[in-house]
Amino acid sequence: MKIAVIGTGIVGSLIAREFTKYKVEVEMFEKLPDVGWGVTKANSGILHAGYDDEPHTLRAKYCARGNEMYTTLSKELDFKIKRVGSLVVAFNDKEVKTIEELLERGRKNGVKDLKILSKIEALEVEPNLSREIIAALYSPNAGVIAPWEVAQAAVENALDNGAKLHLSTEVESILEENGKYRLNTSNGIFSFDVVVNAAGLWADELAESAGVKVTPLHPRRGQYILLDRSDLVKTVLFPTPSKAGKGTLVIPTVHDTTLLGPTSEDLTPSEKNSTETTVEGLSEVIKKAQKLVPMVNLSKAIRTFAGLRPENDIKDFVIKREKNMIHIVATRSPGLTAAPALAKDVVEDLAEKLNLRTNGEFRPKRKAIPRIADMNERDKEKLINQDPSYGRIVCRCNKVTEGEIVEAIRRGARTLDGIKFRTTAMFGRCQGSFCTVKIMNIMRRELGNDFEDIVKNLPKSNIVDGVVR
Ligand SMILES: Cc1cc2nc3c(=O)[nH]c(=O)nc-3n(C[C@H](O)[C@H](O)[C@H](O)COP(=O)(O)OP(=O)(O)OC[C@H]3O[C@@H](n4cnc5c(N)ncnc54)[C@H](O)[C@@H]3O)c2cc1C
């Protein structure tokens, strides 16, 4: 049985891995040159506790369960989670009522360990929080991850278990033909017995190409400011939510930086690539972040960026099955948190209906690229003795070594962003000012590229025009 998974975001990558637990042939299709570069690359990276979602929605069904599943998943796939906890803070009595409702909703959704803290208790958890708050909803189970690392890890593990990956291959349409599905792609025609459409912002259009009607998507943009490493906050800080969503947050990231954002701006369906930031958007982020944490200091800003949520009018995920074709649409927040539970249900349901046999040889584990910066002295010494390139620091900000960069290339990185998102080189304070050229030299040596041909991410995003001397 041949199964196609379209899209290698958090949803598609985990679904593809889940399928490799069965005796089937799995092929992944991704229109971008690398995995996890869609919605999964630019978001808040929070494992939400699950109190925010209306009971009986798919979001509520999968959020708290997905959050729990991440603990095992991170051990199997060797990616970092920090269970930093979250506080939803109230500045007035009306907001206290809202957090009490969230507590109740959380309990209905099966979220454990939620409690309301007094002002003093909340300030003990988060000393830099505004003195104006009067109470907060605390969840110790909220966490942070680097979502693209999960997608990379799931794809690597799926490949290790026999799946295939077609990068830079856009699926243009899906056609049902004699009980099979024909994928017309930018790299030719393929035929499959089962197709899973996990194409993020484009899942609605792809479903339509197959003659399946789903609620149309529009992007809802979220702009962010990334601050350099600090211990500004320990916990994810939310204002009380509004109709526009969870609000603008202050987030301690898994890489020890602080993230401020996002905004919530509805764009038109034709703006699915509009990831630009704006003066108005970033000003709003600063104002709202400083309301939560007055000490927020913009002199620490190292990067701004924006992500796009795949929104629909019903404000819930849509999982639509038509024979052996499944469309997963509107993977808005908390899609990241929900993804492991959603992937498991989608695949187990299909496996049962198609009577798929389990793959006794499935290997659940994948090892991350070794990170010198996270190792103790003994392990560092051992690794450097085995391979001296792990002793040569290339990215000074995040202490990434040549060995890590070479390993990222070995695992498929072919662009500067491919290396950045696998190793955190170029991710730190100088944002690549000091190490980009060194990394390009390593790429040239390892891949035999000409310097001029090395791109940041997409075709034509070349860094240099030519070599002067
Ligand atoms: C601003 C913002 C903040 C968020 N914060 C959180 C949070 O803190 N916690 C949380 O749980 N969730 C959060 N989310 C939601 C979460 O990021 C998404 O639910 C999740 O990343 C969606 O993953 P996906 O795999 O569905 O989509 P994607 O990551 O977009 O993956 C789809 C992939 O399909 C590819 N593709 C598209 N069309 C085609 C085609 N025709 N052929 C081949 N490939 C194709 C794309 O290139 C892409 O790589 C946030 C989202 C945003 C935008």
- Give the DSSP E fraction (strand runs of 2 or more residues): 15-25%
**Number of discrete helical segments:** 12
- Count of DSSP E strands? 22
Average pLDDT confidence is 96
CATH class of the largest domain: Alpha Beta
Helix content: 25-40%
Taking Cα atoms only, what radius of gyration do you get, to the nearest Å?
Answer: 22 Å
Give the CATH H-level superfamily of the largest domain.
FAD/NAD(P)-binding domain
- The general outline is globular
Can you tell me the number of structural domains? 3
Distinct small molecules: flavin-adenine dinucleotide
Distance between the termini: 55 Å
- For the largest sheet, list the strands in their spatial order: 8-2-1-12-20-19
Query: What is the name of the CATH architecture of the largest domain?
Result: 3-Layer(bba) Sandwich
SS-derived structural category: alpha+beta
| Major sheet attributes | 6 strands, mixed
Could you name the ranges where pLDDT drops below 50 across 5 or more consecutive residues? Answer: none
CATH fold-level name of the largest domain: FAD/NAD(P)-binding domain
Protein architecture, described:
The protein has helices spanning 10-19, 58-77, 93-108, 119-125, 147-160, 203-209, 279-292, 335-353, 377-386, 402-410, 416-423, 436-447, and strands at 2-6, 25-29, 46-47, 86-90, 115-118, 135-139, 143-144, 164-166, 171-177, 180-185, 188-192, 194-197, 218-227, 236-238, 249-252, 258-261, 265-266, 301-311, 318-322, 325-329, 393-395, 400-401. It has 469 residues and is α+β, with helices and mostly antiparallel strands. It folds into three domains: 1-81 and 143-216 and 312-368, 3-Layer(bba) Sandwich (FAD/NAD(P)-binding domain), CATH 3.50.50; 86-140 and 218-310, D-Amino Acid Oxidase, Chain A, domain 2, CATH 3.30.9.10; 372-453, BFD-like [2Fe-2S]-binding domain (Arc Repressor Mutant, subunit A), CATH 1.10.10.1100. The chain has a six-stranded mixed beta sheet with strand order 8-2-1-12-20-19, with helices on both faces. Strand 21 and strand 22 (400-401) form a beta hairpin. Helix 10 (402-410) packs across helix 12. The model has no long low-confidence stretch (mean pLDDT 96). Residues 6-12, 29-32, 37-40, 43-46, 48, 170-171, 198-202, 206, 222, 262, 307-309, 331-337 line the site of flavin-adenine dinucleotide (FAD). The site of flavin-adenine dinucleotide (FAD) has 40 residues, from helix 1, strand 18 and helix 8.
